[in-house]
Amino acid sequence: MTNAAALTKKDIDHIAGLANLSITDRQSEELVTQLEETVTYVSALQKISTENIPETSQVTNTENVYRKDEIDSERLLSQKDALSGKKQYKGFFVVDAVFDREK
Amino acid sequence: MSTFEPVIGLEIHAELKTKSKMFCGCPADHFGTPPNTQTCPVCLGLPGALPVANIQAIDWTIMLGLALGSTIADISKFDRKHYFYPDLPKGYQISQYDQPLCSGGMVSTSFGDVYIRRVHLEEDTGKLQHATLDSRNVTLVDFNRSGVPLVEIVTKPDIRSAQQAKEFLKKLHQIIRNLEISDADMEKGSMRIEPNISLRPIGSKELPAYKVEVKNINSFRFAAAAIEYEIVRHKKILDEGKIPVQETRGWNEQKGITVSQRSKEEAADYRYFPEPDIPPMRFSKRYIENIRETMPELPNVRKERMMKEYELQEKQADVLISDMAKCRLFDEAVIHHSVSENKISAVEVANWIINKVPNASGIDSNTVVKQIVDDNSIVAIDEDELNCIVSEVVSKNPKAVADYKGGKEQSLMFLLGQIKRTLPKVQVSVILEALKKQL
Amino acid sequence: MLFNLSISALAEGIRKKDISILDLVLESFKAVEQCEHRVNALITVIDKEAALTRAKKLQQALTTAASPLYGIPFVMKDAYCTRGVQTTAASNVLAGYIPAYSATVYKRLEDAGAILIGKANMDAWGHGASTENTDFGVTKNPWDMQRSAGGSGGGPAAALACRYCAFAIGEDTGGSIRNPAAWNNVSAMKVTYGRVSRYGAIAYASSLDTVGPTAKTIEDCAFVLETIAGYDPYDATSSRKLVPSYSREIGQSIKGRKIAFPTEFYGKALDHQIRDTIIQARDVFVAQGAIVKDVSLPLLEYGVPMYYILAPSETSSNLGRYDGVRFGSGREFFTKETMRRIMTGTYALSSGYYDAYYKKAQKVRSLFIKEYQELLSQYDAILTPVTPIMPPRFGELLQDPIKNMMADLYTVIVNIVGLPSLALPCGFGSNGLPIGMQLIGPMFSESTLFSLGYAYQEATDWHTKMPNI
Q1: What is the domain-level CATH number for residue C16?
Q2: C268: annotated active-site residue
Q3: pTM over 0.80
């Protein structure tokens, strides 16, 4: 069982990094208490036994839903629509340079 | 001499050559297309878009697993793998985590068997390019490749040398090409390799204390070179009593070295969870057997058959199985009646196809057989008729005759050629004999 | 006032040419012009000229085979992609975003001839129960402008209460269509998961999100649902089950229908006015021939904790695509509340915590599914409140995160188990604020739920009341 009260600013900064959120120091500190509160609250689930209970990931009650290997030209976007007014160069999207591969 | 042994595993990705992408109906064939002209809300990761799985990609992944001797899952699913990078539009990749389509399997090499951990299916990312715009360093992104089905093959770290790695890769490549599920072209990027290399003390059964991953390899040759380089680099460090840093390195083609990219102190936290937008998959034994039945003959099986049934030499068989089109042509040609009636042999057919057919996809088996038959056929000719034609040619070409008598051998060939025009099917030696008699 | 008429009455009027489509559209814009500056139910109002042009075209092309929704004005919660029309999910991240494609639900309504009047306000990304977590100003409750219109779909419900239109398309992940229905005195159907295609609906929590109708009456909801429901090859989770003719089945007798009354839902957390009102509603069902019995659903207390692990986890994933590269603006535009949910979800999925939180919540989910399956194998519906509290004043919920979560006490479980639930008006509090109740049914039992709600609305007139606006 995890101790929810043990969250630190370092934890918050780590989670924000994972979530690709830039947070200020002040926000980071606020989030420590807020997240602690929420995590403590949802930890109430620990009280109920789920031994030998399988997880449910979805409630569709179906399996094997596929599409045929066919081209769908109806949904194909034109280059203009795909770029939709965002920053572009010769048909490419443009972002600030990424040097390291994060993967 | 060395106290350490290499512990090498390989991670291979191959783009499947389906018509459409993995989770949408955009064309999957993206090579050379103008940027961002083959996208839709799904593969561009627009708000509200949803994935639907391409059954062909799934069937082909299962087929690859069968070809490798894997166990096919009876229940499987997709999972979301989270990380942020500009080429990953949704901020997660739909991949497979703990229930891959295929587990286990093996490819044998002359150095020993290499076991497969898993074969799974996922979607490809977009493509990045570096550029400078208005003196700023930028990255350009093209999403045409985003969503293309990618099969990932992970081996156990059973490989012990660069040479073994190379042989394994060649065999795997041949299997994939043989199944016709991917072009597996390393130069075009439809096949990618990432070796994981470590060294451990010889005789140790434990996992090594570290692992180095190498990226940016685009040929089997470079894969072997990178592995060799790493083995040397690691040994040096270990001999000093230190442990190589666990990290990802990039292969530098020009310099023939690997360069540190990032220190991977901790593994990335991908926060996998089951993909809620795609219901799970369940495969009956019959479904899997159907795929097995439609599977093309595997290279090693085919090679054996050719050598046994048709008495081809190993060298001939090897050439044929390396080219799907040649293989197919051979299989069709040998059932032609000319072969079955022993007018020409399977070995002749093989030789003809290997040596005299540059483009096996551009010719049909009937034509090939005819060519061989024509080349072989010796028409018995009446001696008088032959002499008649020979004299005719001799009298029509006095200069050539004089030249030959004067010592020019080519002129004989010239006269031969002229005679062959009228008598194409007569054996050359017979004509020459008659010709020489008259000169 | 044309929008006091039912959809079937409007449809008949249109067919008989007693009502012109143009007049309907003009009435929509009139209502918007009168109320919108006070209520702020809409983020985007469709260009009036464009709407009138469409109205004229539809009028000309009118045939007797027209759908009941032909020429009928509606609004959509701004969580649906509408090609060529701004779609924001009430977040500045998407301010100015014009989608290049349309949601399936929108296409089906367009094809039926319905007329979009506006995109309605909501809690950004579905994150909230009060339409306060929005970058486009709060939506005021038309019944009391100092109070919240509910959430996350406060905009559509308020638009209906103010009679901007005949129906609205909402979206329910944890109560987002039902809570505003209860707080604005309108009806809504939270459908069975997969009943209506989610393609083009901006995702909050993928395994919980549902697309549904909200309108003045149950009958109106039925007409809308039969137009929008049904399998969509673009949504792998959409159901292949045939869509019944809801509007035709709505009048079936409810005699002998068994309704469960779970005692845990009527405990201390519930405002006593709401309790008393629903007990009266219970009596109406009994008078109609239904059988109502007390039952126990002890898992109730685990519902909110379970939801507030699963929903934030899925939203942290679904919001990963908003990076400003291909569309919209960067992640710095997320509100505090949204950031909190993303953080909570990321934490619950992260290495070392996944088992204790996300996986645990998924197991508890299995327990809830079993509990409801067992009960609903014996009963046709479960009668519960929609919210434990009356519409709060602005700021009350946002300031208190736990109270905010607890507002969803009775609604979130329904999404977790994927069941349908009908929300409908059943009375008013002493301060004139509306009170709603919900009827939860087995999977794909919308028809039965509609018939129960219809019978109730035939016997009562709460749903006919309008705010003084």
Answers
A1: 3.90.1300.10
A2: no
A3: yes
